[in-house]
Amino acid sequence: MEKLDFICHVGFDELHEIGTTLKELISILDKNDVKEAVLSPIGEGWIHKFKEQNRNISKISIKSNSRFIFFCSVNPWFEEEALNELKICFKELGAKGVVFNTVRQGLYIDSPMIFPFIEMAELYKKPVYFYTGTPIYGLPLNLANLALKYPKVHFILGTMGATDYWGDVIPCVRMANNIYIETSLNTNVPAVLPGFVKEFGADKLLFGTNFPYSNYRLECEKILKCNFSREVNKNIFSLNAKELISLD
Amino acid sequence: MIIDIHVHFWESFMSFKCPSIEEVIEGIKRTGIDISYLNSLSGLLKTNPSEDNKKIFKITSQYPQHFQGVAVVNPYAGEEAVLELEKCLKDYKFIGLKLHPWLQGYYASADFLDPILDLCRSYDVPVMFHTGTPPYAQVFEVACQAKKHPKVRFIFCHMGLNYQWHDALETGKQYKNSYFDTSGISYPFAVERIIEEVGAERVMFGTDNPFLFPEIELLKIEDLNLSVSEKEHIFYKTATLVFKQF
Ligand SMILES: [Zn+2]
Predict the structure, then answer these.
(1) In CATH, what number is assigned to the domain containing residue A170?
(2) Which domain holds residue A80?
(3) How close is the Cα of B142 to the center of ligand 1, in Å?
(4) Does residue A248 register a pLDDT over 50?
């Protein structure tokens, strides 16, 4: 089945001592029938090297004939400089969305520091991805609180609250229906996905891998193991993402 | 040969329904697992898990070819918990204890676990701790117990999950009585790293079946860059030694 990976990376994360090259990524995408992939910064790219990584990924995306979809990162602690960068990414560098890793950046997901960035995303009609699942700075329900304040923005609850905030995934969407769920890195699939699909349908689920943190076989197989219909799988593996990304 | 040290059964656990034991066995067979070490997930949440342990005993007696039992107790019950554990180890011949500081709500480093851990030492059985979910189930909290009880074998389930795998690596290097199971953690690179630096003779295959998909947990290990001898340790040799099942 054709796939769109909603989040993967090139480069190296010093903290977890893991990384990959573009060449390796492309060969793995080819092997796994991944036609398109959202590419976004990694490691220091979330923190202080966002400009450098944004430009690099923007170039990769252009060169790839839009096989790679560029999602930028900016760090709210850099205030005006970061806000300006976000504008440049949306306006000039072709970013289709923005990723925040607030755990690595050191702020609450719903901190007022982040509001101007969400307002910018709203202005440019771009989805906003948050890493979730690590206390205290990456809690799913703080994302729900933020999503309630910006009902017109599409938020992505990244990694489905991995690891042990899986229990907050369904409550988040009950709180705010402008939240999408990205499935990478969470193994608690049986406890979340079947119930989720039953309650909300499959339109809000986005397949992702977070490669190189995880691998394609695991991330694909765990969705297939749910035995959803072919139609549901198609939605999860690519259609939902395509619709979300082309909203503008 | 594959031993899965981390399998649950429950009648009711929050709103999650457990598949029937026959369905669990189907999954075990499909995955190619020979023996599963079974504990009661619902029992972890009871003031008195006596019925839950008994249920596990029934299952292990009915299907000895598939299961060995692992006890659960509620440490808050004090002396009653010690008696329940003794019954499991002596009468039911269970081969270990599972504690879940997150679900059960205590710091994993708590001193009130001493009588329970002392009993595990007397019976020479290992203790499995859920790890990787702050604030109650941090790897370094369990490491405090490993230091305090050097003769008890501690199994750090999930290797501290994605955010505390590094603590697991540090603990593995420091405490020879620390062991790790591979379930739940979704960073394959971290599992590989712990095997490489701590050693496959301290790592055991686990799935968290049926709470997680056993096939996916098996894929995770099969995909790692490991030698045949390392895989043998992870899939059965380490468990055989740690749980004294030879
Ligand atoms: Zn478990």
Answers:
(1) 3.20.20.140
(2) 3-244
(3) 16
(4) no
